[in-house]
Design goal:
142 residues, alpha/beta, CBS-domain, 3-stranded mixed sheet, 5 helices, 6 strands, globular
Length: 142
């Protein structure tokens, strides 16, 4: 049986709830991620920030303000005001099929993964796309 640990991304890019929407935008752009786990000062998981959350509070480039003003506004919004705190998580030994069904049914883009009470990874839609590509390539070889 394939478990979540076999597919999850282990490289986590996290922020703190006191960081700003501007910092989240920069992290998401630089690291090319759409989901950012939010941790406290001790590294404990406290929430999740998604690209959708950031877009909902960001000032549109179509707004009649210049980039400096937009950056200043986004720098004044702490992540704590927009992050999601009620998050379904999974343990690393969860069956991958179960996690996939959950993500599809709930229309979630990611699932934070834990080992007991410690955040150890994140399972995203992109991980499933990578798996699909791998399986298609293996099938093509046969």
């Amino acid at each position: 049986m394939i478990i979540v640990k076999d597919l999850m991304s282990r490289e986590l890019h996290t922020l703190k709830s006191t960081d700003t929407v501007r910092q989240a935008c920069e992290l998401m752009l630089n690291k090319r991620v759409r989901h950012v786990p939010i941790v406290d000062e001790l590294g404990k998981f406290v929430g999740l920030l998604t690209k959708r959350d950031v877009l909902a509070v960001s000032v549109s480039v179509l707004a009649d303000i210049d980039a400096a003003e937009r950056h200043e506004l986004e720098s004044s919004i702490p992540i704590s005001e927009v992050m999601i705190t009620e998050i379904t998580v999974a343990q690393e030994d969860t069956a991958l099929l179960e996690a996939a069904r959950f993500l599809l049914k709930q229309k979630h883009g990611c699932l934070p993964i834990f080992r007991d009470s410690q955040l150890v990874g994140i399972l995203t839609e992109a991980d499933f796309v990578k798996l699909a590509i791998y399986l298609m390539e293996k099938t093509a070889e046969d």
